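Anyone up for a design puzzle?
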């Protein structure tokens, strides 16, 4: 009788949670690794809408043009004269395309000058960002 009590006490002493914790940590690592991270330009931009807009997951360098005419490259303000050099350096180190996000209220001339400066620096893979419209 005494042996039965000892066995019951041993069985009821606790549940081994190690396998469950292992599974939880493996799932956590899986979700962290498979999550796609979205790169943003670092400034608030109101993009124009286009019905033919398509996603560009390969873009590595984000250039933003604000409504005030400021130019940002990967979250850092850049002078208008140096934008081509900065983007070319960033694109070569990152290895990918360039996406220019121009605010809806920005000047078209500044967008064209920025794209021209990037092309003169040797980068040909340039896209203009737009929100997908209901067209």
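Challenge accepted. My sequence:
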């Amino acid at each position: 009788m005494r042996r039965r009590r000892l066995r019951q006490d041993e069985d009821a002493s606790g549940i081994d949670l190690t396998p469950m914790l292992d599974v939880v940590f493996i799932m956590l690592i899986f979700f962290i690794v498979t999550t796609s991270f979205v790169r943003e330009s670092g400034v608030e931009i109101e993009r124009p809408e286009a019905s033919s807009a398509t996603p560009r997951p390969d873009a590595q360098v984000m250039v933003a043009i604000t409504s005030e005419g400021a130019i940002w490259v990967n979250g850092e303000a850049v002078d208008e004269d140096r934008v081509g050099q900065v983007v070319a350096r960033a694109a070569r180190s990152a290895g990918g395309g360039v996406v220019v996000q121009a605010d809806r209220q920005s000047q078209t001339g500044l967008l064209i000058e920025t794209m021209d400066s990037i092309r003169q620096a040797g980068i040909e893979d340039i896209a203009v960002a737009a929100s997908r419209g209901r067209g």
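A detail worth pointing out: The helical segments are 2-11, 18-34, 83-94, 108-120.
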